[in-house]
Amino acid sequence: MLVSTEAVKALRDKTGAGVLECKKALLEAEGDLSHAIAILKERGLLLAEKKAERVTREGLIEAYVHTGGRLGALVEVNCETDFVARTEEFKRLAHDLAMQVAATAPRFISADEAPEGEDPTEDCLLVQPFIKEPEKRVQDIIAEAKAKLGENIRVRRFARFELRE
């Protein structure tokens, strides 16, 4: 089966994957764009899992202040390289995470941080439904970014501020 250049370009535009990876996925999916996206996502997530133990010393601190200035959040999101930290995709992820913290007031990043004997469930940032796509969890959004950017990404810490009346 031949894969058109336009199909490869369309898949690359949607996923950010390399040209050869897009071509291979389209061949495997027999030209079906949505199936090729699923293939790339699966491969990307597998790569992201392999990178989960890599050191994340770069990144950025993102702030979100809600309209009116009465509520805000800071979040530190780390990655492996400063190159990735400067990408629009990474900046957008950090901003979305800061907005998530402001909107949902989590107490912990993950259940590992919760005191023993406490059931943190929705108090954990990573397991909360993502505010922009409630059918996904925050950890799913981060995993998708890992797959797309090709690096380990983690939320190191956050703080939420709200004026008291």
Kindly name the structural category. alpha+beta
How many domains? 2
Radius of gyration over all CA atoms, rounded: 18 Å
CATH domain topology of the largest domain = Tetrahydropterin Synthase, Chain A
CATH superfamily of the largest domain: Elongation factor Ts, dimerisation domain
Task: Name the helix and strand elements from N-terminus to C-terminus, one letter apiece.
Answer: HHHEEHHHE
Outline:
elongated
Q: Which spans of ≥5 residues are poorly predicted at pLDDT below 50? A: none
- How far the N terminus sits from the C terminus, by CA atoms, comes to 66 Å
Helix content: 40-55%
| CATH top-level class of the largest domain | Alpha Beta
- What percentage of amino acids are in beta strands? 15-25%
Annotated CATH architecture of the largest domain: 2-Layer Sandwich
Count of individual helical segments: 6
Structural write-up:
Helix content is 44%, strand content 16%. By secondary structure, it is α+β, with helices and mostly antiparallel strands. The model has no long low-confidence stretch (mean pLDDT 86).
Task: Summarize the topology.
Blueprint: H1 5-15, H2 19-28, H3 33-50, E1 58-65, E2 71-79, H4 82-85, H5 88-104, H6 138-149, E3 154-162
Antiparallel strand pairs: 1-2, 2-3
Helix pairs in contact: 1-2, 1-3, 2-3, 3-6, 5-6
Could you provide a short overview of the structure?
The chain is of the alpha+beta class and 165 residues long. Helix content is 44%, strand content 16%. It has two domains: 5-50, Helicase, Ruva Protein, domain 3 (Orthogonal Bundle); 58-162, Elongation factor Ts, dimerisation domain (Tetrahydropterin Synthase, Chain A), CATH 3.30.479.20.
